[in-house]
Specification:
By secondary structure, the chain is mainly α. It has six helices and four strands; from the N terminus they run αααββαααββ. The chain is elongated, with a radius of gyration of 20 Å.
């Protein structure tokens, strides 16, 4: 899952995940507070994340889409696997954690590379901090753009009438 986003956009995704973990809502005001930005700034991030199909807007707030959940899990998986690799190479855990965050969030890492890394590490179940490494589950494809619920049907034109869909 190769998505290009800034650290701040990723921070917004994480804020939505954290605030909406029990369901709706993650409110703009709460997201802004968590990110230490003003609400209009948070709203700008949220609009971009909705366009990317990572976040869904509901009647009273925001939550991660299924695609967003899969994305967060894949980034978490990459982070914890790289952290495991770096710490096993003798890099201090704090530095391994910092470097792994940058690699996982900003890196253009192929999903197959992550699978290979996991295999080479013996498919560890936890990272050096003892946190679980999410399973490789990229079963969700990107959602269609807002307003599109499935494949578009071709329009049929009746003789002498307007387009009928």
């Amino acid at each position: 899952m190769n998505i290009k986003m800034s650290k701040r956009e990723y921070e917004c995704v994480e804020s939505v995940r954290s605030l909406s973990s029990g369901g709706w809502p993650a409110r703009v005001k709460d997201i802004a507070t968590m990110m230490k930005v003003r609400p209009p700034t948070a709203l700008g991030f949220l609009d971009r994340l909705v366009e990317m199909s990572l976040v869904e807007k509901g009647p009273i707030g925001y939550r991660l889409s299924q695609y967003g959940v899969a994305y967060i899990n894949q980034v978490t998986r990459a982070h914890r696997l790289f952290e495991t690799l770096l710490s096993s190479a003798g890099i201090p855990l704090d530095e391994a954690c910092r470097a792994s965050s940058s690699i996982a969030i900003e890196g253009d890492i192929d999903d197959e590379a992550i699978k290979t890394l996991s295999g080479n590490l013996g498919h560890p179940g936890t990272c050096p901090h003892g946190k679980p490494i999410p399973a490789d589950d990229m079963s969700y494809e990107r959602a269609p753009p807002p307003g599109v619920t499935g494949p578009r049907r071709p329009s049929r034109k009746a003789a002498g009438s307007k387009d009928v869909i």
